[in-house]
C-alpha cells in the first residue's frame, strides 16, 4: 500500500504543530535522544500567548527552548521522569520537577491511571514503505504515550538510527495526526566513557563474580561502563544483554566477541534494551542491527522477565549507602540528582534469577568543590534522601576497598561489613555512629 498521500496530508510545519498547544495543556516531549527539537523551538515563540503549560519528558540532553524563553516560569513547567544533568540544574532553579516512579510501571501510568496528555511529540526515523516511523533508541514508553494522547505529532529526523525490536518499537502513520520534517540535527551524543583507578578496582571485583553465559544489565556512569571495559578484555564468553539502557560498553564487549546471547533463556542472540544513549559510533552500531532488540520498558524492566534469565548480573551506581544497607541513588538529602529508574526492578529481578546477583557500586568517598572529602558509606541516609533500594533488597555493595553480600546479615553484621569497605579515614567515626545506633558488636575489631 502507498502511504505517500496520507503522509502529505499530515505534513505540517513545526510552527503549525505548535499551534495545537493551549494554556493549561499537558505536552509530552518524548524521551532521551528522541526529545522534541523543532517543535520545541516553535512552541518557545508562543511563550507570551500561553500560561501554565506542563511539559513532560526525561533524560534530556539540552535545555528546552521553551524553558529558556520563559524567564518568569509562569508559562511552562518541565516535569521529568528521570533527571539528566541538564534537568538537575533546572530542578535546582525550580524550573523542573521530578516524577517519582519505578520505570517499569511507566506505561501503566499512561494506560491505566490515566495521566493527562493533550499533545505528544517525539523525534522518529523517516517512514518506511509499510507506513511505520521507528522510535530509534527510545522505545521505552512511546507506544503507551501515543495511545493515551489526544494528538500525536512525529518529528522526522534522518539521522535517527532505526532500531529493530520485538514490539512497540515503531508507530504506524494511521496513529499519527501530524508529521514535521525536522531540521535533521545530529542525534545527541554522550562522550565515550572515561574510567578512574577507583572505577577499575570496583570493576575487577565485580567481574570476578560473573560466570560464562551470564546476562548483563549495566546502569549509566563510569563504574558500570568500566565493568564493560574489563569484561571486554577478560576471558568471559557467551554473555547476554537484557538492560534498561544501552551504552557504549555493550558495543565494545560485542566487538571483542564476549557477547553472543547464546545462553539466554529468552530472546536468544538478541541484546534487549528499553532506550539507549552514547556516542555516534554506538548509534551506527544500533542502526538496522538485528542483533539488538528495542522493546518497551514494561518488558525490559519487568522483574519477572529479568528473573527468567539465568545468571542475571545487575550493576548500578549509588549516591550513598547507609549502615543498614539502604541505598539512595536519586538524591542527596533534598538535592535531587537523577531518579529511581529501573534500579529496584533489576535489584529484585537479578536476585530472583537462578544464579543471579545485583551489585550496587560506588566510590568510598566524594570530594566537594571546596576540596572536602566525605564518606559515601554513612550512618543513616541524609534527611530527605530517597531510598531507592530498601535494605531487605540490597545484595552486593562494592567500593574500591572490597565487596560485601548483605543478604542474611543482621544489623551489626551489616554495619561491620559496610564499615570494612568504607574509606579507612572514616571507619573509626562510623564505628562510633554504629555504637550510638546500637548496631555494633565488638566481634572482629
Automatic annotation (TrEMBL):
SUPFAM superfamilies: NagB/RpiA/CoA transferase-like (SSF100950). The active site is at residue 244. Pathway: Lipid metabolism; butanoate metabolism. Keywords: Fatty acid metabolism, Lipid metabolism, Transferase. Residues 278-434 form the Acetyl-CoA hydrolase/transferase C-terminal domain. Coiled coil: none annotated. Gene3D superfamilies: 4-hydroxybutyrate coenzyme like domains (3.30.750.70), Acetyl-CoA hydrolase/transferase C-terminal domain (3.40.1080.20), Glutaconate Coenzyme A-transferase (3.40.1080.10). It comes from the Bacteria. Pfam families: AcetylCoA_hyd_C, AcetylCoA_hydro. CoA binds at residues 219-223, 319, 342. This is Butyryl-CoA:acetate CoA-transferase. It comes from Peptoanaerobacter stomatis.
